[in-house]
Specification:
Layout (H helix, E strand, L loop, with lengths): L1 E3 L5 E6 L7 H12 L2 E5 L13 H11 L5 H12 L4 E7 L1 H7 L9 E5 L16 E8 L4 H8 L5 E9 L12 H18 L1
Parallel strand pairs: 2-3, 2-4, 4-5, 5-6, 6-7
Antiparallel strand pairs: 1-3
Length: 196
């Protein structure tokens, strides 16, 4: 677990994608800690991060050793942190976003931010009890518009579609798009600001 604490009022749980807690995730933990959150980032893989070139191996490892039922551990972490913090938020990326989405019916969580969670499409029947910001990439491995159409109209859900590909937030990825990453950070600031 990456932890960056400093007596802040609010906690942010960051859930990495299949590659693990790599440099991008470490940088993100630092960035949001400097913005005033105590950070908790479970290293779900329990091993060193995978290189981007090893995406197939990373997904296979995640599927066999972690899986989307990891939300149970995150729900326990949320409950523990709620005893210590005013508000607890989750930010997830890809598989981490799907795990974060699976926590949306947990009323203890104060807000969830999901980046390009392609497997959210397998959990469309969930009804969020807390505010959720879904940030999808327009170009992804699934029918993004179909998923958005099925999610629109749900209460507590704000959906944004960015002109980019899966992984656009990661400056170390070939899919990084600076303008869309900054736009997403603005959406996050507005989202969290509305819940303060």
């Amino acid at each position: 677990m990456i932890e960056k604490t400093g007596g802040h009022a609010n906690a942010l749980i960051i859930l990495h994608e299949i590659y693990g807690a790599n440099r991008f995730i470490e940088d993100l933990c630092t960035e949001y800690h400097l913005q005033g959150f105590d950070i908790f980032c479970p290293e779900m893989l329990g091993r060193n991060s995978f290189p981007y070139a090893g995406s197939a191996e990373a997904y296979d490892y995640f599927s066999k050793n972690v899986g989307f039922d990891y939300d149970k551990e995150i729900k326990q972490l949320i409950e523990k942190l709620k005893l210590l913090y005013d508000k607890v938020f989750i930010m997830g990326f890809s598989v981490g976003a799907t795990i974060a989405w699976k926590c949306c019916e947990d009323t203890v969580c104060d807000g969830i931010i999901c980046f390009y969670g392609s497997r959210i499409r397998d959990y469309l029947l969930l009804q969020p009890c807390c505010p959720v910001l879904l940030l999808f990439a327009a170009q992804d491995s699934f029918d993004v518009d179909s998923v958005i159409n099925k999610l629109q109209g749900k209460s507590n859900v704000d959906i944004q579609k960015l002109r980019a590909s899966h992984g656009f937030m990661d400056p170390y990825s070939n899919h990084f798009v600076q303008t869309q990453a900054q736009m997403s950070k603005n959406h996050i600031s507005d989202f969290i600001g509305s819940l303060a």
